[in-house]
Amino acid sequence: MAKRLIEVFTSGCYVCDNTVKQIKELACPNCEVVVYDLNKKCETNECEDKAKKYGIQSVPAVAIDGKLVDCCKNKGIDIEILKAAGLGQ
After folding, report:
1. Average pLDDT over the chain, rounded to whole?
2. Structure pTM?
3. In the prediction, which pLDDT does 22 show?
4. What are 18-26's contacts with CB under 8 Å, separation 24+?
5. Which candidate, 10, 27, 41, 43, has a CA 20 to 30 Å from the CA of 17?
6. What is the DSSP pairing of strand 4-10 with strand 31-37?
7. For residue range 13-28, what is the model confidence (pLDDT) as tens digits?
8. What is the mean pLDDT of residues 17-41?
9. Are strands 67-68 and 4-10 parallel, antiparallel or unpaired?
10. Which long-range contacts (CB under 8 A, 24 or more apart) does 53-59 make?
């Protein structure tokens, strides 16, 4: 049986580090956890390429077997919502 690929995208922050820790604790022997710190980048641009491919707009984010998990599909910051909440007014 092939291992399940768990890709975790982070920025090296406290929230991301806790997420990585939890994922590693929950991972089973059939899971391969790979962590991409987007601040540190990858030698081959693999991190950025995968983040773009998956449509990641905020971190931490997790993809399992090449698919961004639903809980990570938020679209990041929405400038119009921030304006409606009073930003710039």
Report:
1. 88
2. 0.85
3. 94
4. 19/60, 19/62, 20/60, 23/62
5. 43
6. parallel
7. 998 999 999 999 999 9
8. 93
9. unpaired
10. 54/9, 56/9, 59/9, 59/10, 59/11, 59/13, 59/16
